[in-house]
Structure formats: structure tokens, C-alpha cells
Amino acid sequence: MSAPKLILASASPRRRELLARLGIEPAAIVPADIDETPHKGELPHDYAVRMAREKAEAVVFKGYVLAGDTVVAVGRRILPKAESEASARHCLDLMSGRRHHVLSAIALRHPDGTLRERMSETAVRFKRLSEEEIATYLSTREWHGKAGGYAIQGTAEGLIAWIRGSHSGVVGLPLFETRALLKAAGFDLG
Fold it and tell me: Of the residues 69, 93, 112, 188, which is catalytic?
């Protein structure tokens, strides 16, 4: 019996790199094209799960489809993917010296259409950031396109006082949860 085929419904190079750590090379990368606007009053957990589910369902493929979504939240507030320096600065100012949560939802759509989902929730606290630290981080441009305006796998990691949960989930694909879903689906992960 041949190994199951997997499509990764994400253009994120970080998700692909993380998936490779599990020994999985997707048959193809097919980013899902969906509206990622949060619904009015939608809570961060619900939003992350809905996004992962909708991405998995949007990709047309007869095999397995793996999708994920990472949401950075301060309280009930969903922080945006920073597309401008002003947006990244706002996020960093908001998280400076405070704890925030990173919710990383994954969904695996099976060939028969059934959907399995898992969620990783990680608490992260930045140190109190000085204006100089924020300006230096913004100059790296690592924040561009990142939820909450930072990438933990870059220089921002040196500004994080502590993390409780999944480091890989903060990067964009919680490996423990992903492995469990893939293993249950019959992927050979050792």
C-alpha cells in the first residue's frame, strides 16, 4: 500500500519547514484562498478553528489536506497580521510587558471529507520593550505578514521573557498536535 498523499493548504515556508521536521514532504502546496476577516464579536479561539477548517475545506484534492491558522490574541482582541510598520508597532506596544496567547489551530481533511481538528494554545510574555528595542526590531522587517507583528523564530525570541506551551505552535504549526492527527490518519511517522 502506498503512503497517503498530503496537500499543505498554506504558502507559509515555516509550516512547510515544520512539517519536514516530522518527516513529511507534502505532495503539493496549495494555499487556500478564503476571506480571513474575523466575524463581528468572534473570539480568538473560534476564529482560529474556523480559519483552519475553512482553509482545509477550500482546497480541492482527493487525498489529505492539512491546513492551519495562527492567531495572536491579547484578551479577546485578535491582533492583525502586520502589513505595515505602524501595525507592527501597535502590536508590539500592546504586548510589551504583557502576556498574550498564540492559538494555533490545525485541520486535516481526510479523502472521505471528514475533518479532524486540533488546537494548541501558548502563553507568551514579552519583556517590557523600550522604544529602542521596538525600533530595532521593526528595522529587521521580520514582522511583515506575521500575526501579532512578530516572528518568534527570529530576533524577537530575544525579547520574550517566557513561553508556556508549544514553540512550534507560535511559529505556525504545532508539531505535537499535527503529528497526532497525521499518525491517526495512517501516516508513517515512526
Answer: 69
